[in-house]
Amino acid sequence: MSRKLAVFLEVGYAGMNTTEFIEVDDSISDDDLHDLVWDMAKDHAESYGYYPEKDMSDELEEEEEEESDDTADQYSNGIKGYYEDYIPEKHDQYTQAGDTPTFQKLY
Q: What is the pTM of this model?
């Protein structure tokens, strides 16, 4: 059996949140599922050029303060990912057309 999930991914800034729909095997552990969703959240944030603030080294932090270069990496402490079991009446509104979503089979 498999489990369908709505996954909510946040970067910490307006306009950068998204919802993805995935299907995972029922046997996935909670820890593995949390790790999977966290990796999805980091990948989503990286697509905008943001990285988890906890990944910033002290040395990098000092360099960031000195530079105002727009091409430098940006960090956010608002990167989040969470999931809910898919319920059509609740989650179909998160698709572009409000239709039944396409699920990406993972794990």
A: 0.80
